[in-house]
DNA sequence: GGGCCGCAAACCA
DNA sequence: TTCCATGGTTTGCGGCCC
């Protein structure tokens, strides 16, 4: 079977009566709702629509590179002696038995996946779309297609113009993330009832550890899944699919089996797992994508998870230790069973695609816009970074990155633009269709830290004035309150924190009106997050007090009508995050600061010049001066919060970080382990540790 | 020569 | 006419330092 596939792959380079068969796209993979699709026809149309384009040429280049990699690995395989193979097989067996020893069948995980989420939400908002082929996205790119459209071969990540060729009646609906976020929040309220620590991996997917609730209610996992799906439907009008398994990797695979609107339960039983995994195609595993599948199939003839174990010796021979370990664990059906702790974000980026141009003035303008956007995001999060990465996509779709690490941490658009311009200049002349900017290496320890350690921080100052009483937190300190609401997933916090969603919920929503959910008639935020905001402000702002128990839509009709009534104009929090900060600063200012010693923050040098930033404002500019003071106060507050955030997290995760460091250095040691020498590493076999499975 | 850091590229969801 | 945006992760490689 593997050989046959290799033949097929090899034929791609030669002339053929069916050249489209050699154009490997992701569009012909088996996907729920795509049964009965004429795959050959889809492949031919995709090929014909793409042929000759720059995108197509770049895809050909990439594929040629993969083929080269495959050839090189085959050559390495061929060089292995019988003794080598025996050695690596022993190594694989040992690793398999060690991995088997780590198997944990004590937890029950449930993966929920909303069915064609964006498309379903759009249909809910506009019932006229029901039963018609429809795609959410644009002529350039489709985000989701409904099941009617999938029957034509239309699917997510496909360019709209190809989709229209496949299905001329296809209706295009533009994306509306506010809508999706709103419905996502409704689903999460349901998830929270089953697992307060559930892990959302995107707007439409989540993992729940249902071990405890199954025990408490003496009910089996299938019944829980059934009940959860019914509740989600009652609350939102949307259907979802569920998978239950002993770990997240398996639960995710299971949720795909009876999609849409179905579920599959894999019992926590060794034999059941091994039987299930034995014939499972490797592509079903999260983390194994098009390229990995291609390589494993064409080099080793690995098609199913079971093959991973059978070819374990070769896998150990040719891949790095961590990569081989992942592949072998896939063969055993192992996955994560713990609930991971909070992860800090490591970078912030912005990128934009535009009509390809080599016009330097235009490119510079794009860079300016991106620098502004990135700076705004950085300041919203209260972060500074010292590694700036410029990403470019040329008009021929070649992607380049250019990075520089600075001595100092930056976040202002001026600084970002200054360094980004230098990076871009070095690439000119060039015709580009995308520019991106990314900042990383954040200053966790330095954000908001006072330069003079003897100087009180603003938080100290506020706390020293018995702010804790005013803030009314049960822990009695601002730091504790911030800590609780952002990082504790306790009864006051409906939403989980995970590597994906922490940004949406814990960084932005707190202060960013643009991320606030829909509001009801009384301008009461429906989402619990807004409730948290109310809590935080409660002692300071009566308007938002007592809004923590916000109305839940009783049915999806309510949800829809609220949604339809609520357009952006009805959202009261329309000010920028900085304005929001200023409001907070003003409130704090009224309570604690304005009557006091402002010089803790800034002084007017010679009664004219700001001691912090140097801006000059005459004494007669009273209002402007106050605004300026407010600005610095807000800035300071934001930094203080960030400091608490990072410190708190650091304290909580000191041990896990140590573990990480240990494992990293272990990996580095492994890299140079003599046994690893001679193995061919390939670029992308890393994915397992990036996943939450 | 090993450890560490930074850069560039690639893959994946 | 037209092929996204964002963020995480791994890996190889090269430079620097001890």
TrEMBL record:
<keyword id="KW-0515">Mutator protein</keyword>
<feature type="domain" description="UBZ3-type">
    <location>
        <begin position="603"/>
        <end position="640"/>
    </location>
</feature>
<keyword id="KW-0235">DNA replication</keyword>
<protein>
    <recommendedName>
        <fullName>DNA polymerase kappa</fullName>
        <ecNumber>2.7.7.7</ecNumber>
    </recommendedName>
</protein>
<dbReference type="GO" id="GO:0006260">
    <property type="term" value="P:DNA replication"/>
</dbReference>
<dbReference type="InterPro" id="IPR022880">
    <property type="entry name" value="DNApol_IV"/>
</dbReference>
<dbReference type="InterPro" id="IPR036775">
    <property type="entry name" value="DNA_pol_Y-fam_lit_finger_sf"/>
</dbReference>
<keyword id="KW-0808">Transferase</keyword>
<keyword id="KW-0238">DNA-binding</keyword>
<dbReference type="InterPro" id="IPR017961">
    <property type="entry name" value="DNA_pol_Y-fam_little_finger"/>
</dbReference>
<dbReference type="InterPro" id="IPR041298">
    <property type="entry name" value="UBZ3"/>
</dbReference>
<keyword id="KW-0863">Zinc-finger</keyword>
<dbReference type="GO" id="GO:0003684">
    <property type="term" value="F:damaged DNA binding"/>
</dbReference>
<keyword id="KW-0539">Nucleus</keyword>
<comment type="similarity">
    <text>Belongs to the DNA polymerase type-Y family.</text>
</comment>
<keyword id="KW-0227">DNA damage</keyword>
<dbReference type="InterPro" id="IPR050116">
    <property type="entry name" value="DNA_polymerase-Y"/>
</dbReference>
<dbReference type="GO" id="GO:0008270">
    <property type="term" value="F:zinc ion binding"/>
</dbReference>
<keyword id="KW-0234">DNA repair</keyword>
<dbReference type="GO" id="GO:0003887">
    <property type="term" value="F:DNA-directed DNA polymerase activity"/>
</dbReference>
<dbReference type="Pfam" id="PF18439">
    <property type="entry name" value="zf_UBZ"/>
</dbReference>
<dbReference type="Pfam" id="PF00817">
    <property type="entry name" value="IMS"/>
</dbReference>
<keyword id="KW-0460">Magnesium</keyword>
<feature type="compositionally biased region" description="Basic and acidic residues">
    <location>
        <begin position="1"/>
        <end position="10"/>
    </location>
</feature>
<dbReference type="GO" id="GO:0042276">
    <property type="term" value="P:error-prone translesion synthesis"/>
</dbReference>
<feature type="region of interest" description="Disordered">
    <location>
        <begin position="654"/>
        <end position="677"/>
    </location>
</feature>
<keyword id="KW-0479">Metal-binding</keyword>
<dbReference type="InterPro" id="IPR001126">
    <property type="entry name" value="UmuC"/>
</dbReference>
<keyword id="KW-0862">Zinc</keyword>
<feature type="domain" description="UmuC">
    <location>
        <begin position="109"/>
        <end position="289"/>
    </location>
</feature>
<feature type="region of interest" description="Disordered">
    <location>
        <begin position="1"/>
        <end position="20"/>
    </location>
</feature>
<dbReference type="InterPro" id="IPR043128">
    <property type="entry name" value="Rev_trsase/Diguanyl_cyclase"/>
</dbReference>
<dbReference type="GO" id="GO:0006281">
    <property type="term" value="P:DNA repair"/>
</dbReference>
<dbReference type="Pfam" id="PF11799">
    <property type="entry name" value="IMS_C"/>
</dbReference>
<keyword id="KW-0239">DNA-directed DNA polymerase</keyword>
<dbReference type="GO" id="GO:0005634">
    <property type="term" value="C:nucleus"/>
</dbReference>
<dbReference type="InterPro" id="IPR043502">
    <property type="entry name" value="DNA/RNA_pol_sf"/>
</dbReference>
<keyword id="KW-0548">Nucleotidyltransferase</keyword>
């Amino acid at each position: 079977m593997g050989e046959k596939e290799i033949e097929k792959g090899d034929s791609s380079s030669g002339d053929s009566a069916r050249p489209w068969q050699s154009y490997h796209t992701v569009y012909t993979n088996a996907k729920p709702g795509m049964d009965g699709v004429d795959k050959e026809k889809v492949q031919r149309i995709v090929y014909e629509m793409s042929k000759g384009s720059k995108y197509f040429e770049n895809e050909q280049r990439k594929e040629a590179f993969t083929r080269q990699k495959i050839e090189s690995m085959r050559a390495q395989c061929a060089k292995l002696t019988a003794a080598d193979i025996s050695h690596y097989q022993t190594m694989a067996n040992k690793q398999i038995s060690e991995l088997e020893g780590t198997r944990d069948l004590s937890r029950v995980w449930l993966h929920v996946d909303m069915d064609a989420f964006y498309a379903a939400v759009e249909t809910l908002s506009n019932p006229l779309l029901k039963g018609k082929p429809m795609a959410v996205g644009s002529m350039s790119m489709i985000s989701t297609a409904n099941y009617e459209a999938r029957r034509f071969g239309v699917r997510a990540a496909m360019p709209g113009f190809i989709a229209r060729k496949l299905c001329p009646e296809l209706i295009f609906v533009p994306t509306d993330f506010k809508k999706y976020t709103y419905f996502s929040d409704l689903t999460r309220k349901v998830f929270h009832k089953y697992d307060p620590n559930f892990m959302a991996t995107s707007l439409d997917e989540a993992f729940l550890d249902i071990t405890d609730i199954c025990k408490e209610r003496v009910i089996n996992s299938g019944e829980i899944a059934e009940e959860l799906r019914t509740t989600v439907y009652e609350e939102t009008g949307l259907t979802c699919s569920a998978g239950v398994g002993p770990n997240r990797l398996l639960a995710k695979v299971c949720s795909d089996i009876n999609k849409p609107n179905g579920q599959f339960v894999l019992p926590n039983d060794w034999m059941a797992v091994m039987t299930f995994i034995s014939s499972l195609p490797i592509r079903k595993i999260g983390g194994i994508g098009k390229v990995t599948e291609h390589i494993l199939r064409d080099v080793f003839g690995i098609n199913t998870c079971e093959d991973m174990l059978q070819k374990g010796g070769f896998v150990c021979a040719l891949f790095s230790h961590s990569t081989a370990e992942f592949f072998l664990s896939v063969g055993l059906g192992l996955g994560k069973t713990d609930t991971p702790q909070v992860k800090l974000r490591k970078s912030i980026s912005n990128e934009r695609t535009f009509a390809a141009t080599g016009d330097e003035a235009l490119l510079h303008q794009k860079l300016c816009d991106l620098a502004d956007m990135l700076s705004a995001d950085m300041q919203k999060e209260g972060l500074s970074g010292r590694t700036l990465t410029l990403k470019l996509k040329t008009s021929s779709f070649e992607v380049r990155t250019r990075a520089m690490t600075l001595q100092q941490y930056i976040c202002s658009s001026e600084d970002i633009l200054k360094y980004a311009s230098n990076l871009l200049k070095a690439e000119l002349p060039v015709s580009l269709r995308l520019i991106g900017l990314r900042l990383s290496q954040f200053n966790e320890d330095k954000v908001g830290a006072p330069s003079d350690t003897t100087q009180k921080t603003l938080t100290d100052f506020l706390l020293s004035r018995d702010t804790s009483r005013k803030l009314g937190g049960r822990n009695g300190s601002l730091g504790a309150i911030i800590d609780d609401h952002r990082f504790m997933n306790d009864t006051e916090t409906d939403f989980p924190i995970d590597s994906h969603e922490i940004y949406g919920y814990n960084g932005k929503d707190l202060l960013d009106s643009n991320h606030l959910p829909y509001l009801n008639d009384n301008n009461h935020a429906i989402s619990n997050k807004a409730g948290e905001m109310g809590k935080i402000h409660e002692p300071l702002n009566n308007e938002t007090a007592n809004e923590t128990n916000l109305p839940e839509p009783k049915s999806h009709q309510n949800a829809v009508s609220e949604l339809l009534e609520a357009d952006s104009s009805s959202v009261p929090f329309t000010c920028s995050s900085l304005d929001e900060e200023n409001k907070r600063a003003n409130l704090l200012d009224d309570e604690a600061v304005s009557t006091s010693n402002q010089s803790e923050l800034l002084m007017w040098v010679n009664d004219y010049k700001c001691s912090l930033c140097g801006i000059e404002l005459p004494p007669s500019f009273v209002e402007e001066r106050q605004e300026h003071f407010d600005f610095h106060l807000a800035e300071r507050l934001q930094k203080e919060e960030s400091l608490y955030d990072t410190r708190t997290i650091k304290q909580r995760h000191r041990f896990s970080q140590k573990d990480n460091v240990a494992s990293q250095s272990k990996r580095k040691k492994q890299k140079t382990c003599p046994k690893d020498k001679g193995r061919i590493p390939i670029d992308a076999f890393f994915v397992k540790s990036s996943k939450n499975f």
